[in-house]
Amino acid sequence: FYATLPYDHLEGSRPPFEELLAGRAPLVINCSAGKDRTGLGAALVLSALGVTRDHILEDYALSERFLNLEAIATRADRPDSTGLGSMLRLSAEARAPALRSEPAYLEAAFEAIERQDGSVENVPVRCRIDTPIEIDYYQHGGILPFVLRQLVAKA
Questions:
Q1: Contact indicator for 32, 63 with CB cutoff of 8 Å
Q2: Residue 49 gets which letter from DSSP?
Q3: Residue 31 annotated as catalytic
Q4: Could you tell me if 15 and 6 are in contact, meaning their C-beta atoms sit under 8 angstroms apart?
Q5: Which pairs with CB-CB distance under 8 Å and at least 24 residues apart come from 117-126?
Q6: Which of 31, 62, 144, 148 is catalytic?
Q7: What gap in Å lies between CA 66 and CA 81, rounded to an integer?
């Protein structure tokens, strides 16, 4: 699935980059589970910004650590509100790999992109920090670590 994801959803991958290149940020991207198309989109943006592959894969793996997709998919009160309802036709054992955020999944997408024409292009980018909260995000390693630290501090 991940080896073809970059090409199967190519048109859907363009808008976030077009928005960023046009200077329209911050930007929110999402999908049903928040780890497949969104995970790849976020990984591509991070890669374009020069974040190391190891850090990107580590960030992707956090989806599984902080988001229990099995519990969300099987919510009795609203089983299809997440877009994961079709997964319920499978046994828990069969759907488990699809709900995971294994770094190897994302690595397969990167490898497919790099194999497509055999090259990787690095481009310089400029990062703007416009507000005090963006400084906090930067100092904490991103929005997610910042928010998680805030939640832990309040607990």
A1: no
A2: T
A3: yes
A4: no
A5: 122/50, 123/48, 125/48, 125/49, 125/50
A6: 31
A7: 20
Per-residue pLDDT of the chain (155 residues; tens, 9 = 90+): 767 777 777 777 778 778 888 888 787 776 665 677 788 888 888 888 888 999 999 988 887 777 777 676 666 555 555 556 666 677 778 777 777 788 888 888 888 888 776 666 666 666 677 788 878 877 887 777 777 888 888 87
Burial 107-133 (b: 16+ CB within 10 A, else e): bbbbeebeeeeeeeeeeeeeeeeeeee
Among the listed residues 54, 60, 62, 25, the one whose alpha carbon sits nearest the alpha carbon of residue 42: 60
Hey, what are 116's tokens? 């497509």
Here the tokens at position 67 are 């988001």
DSSP state, 74? T
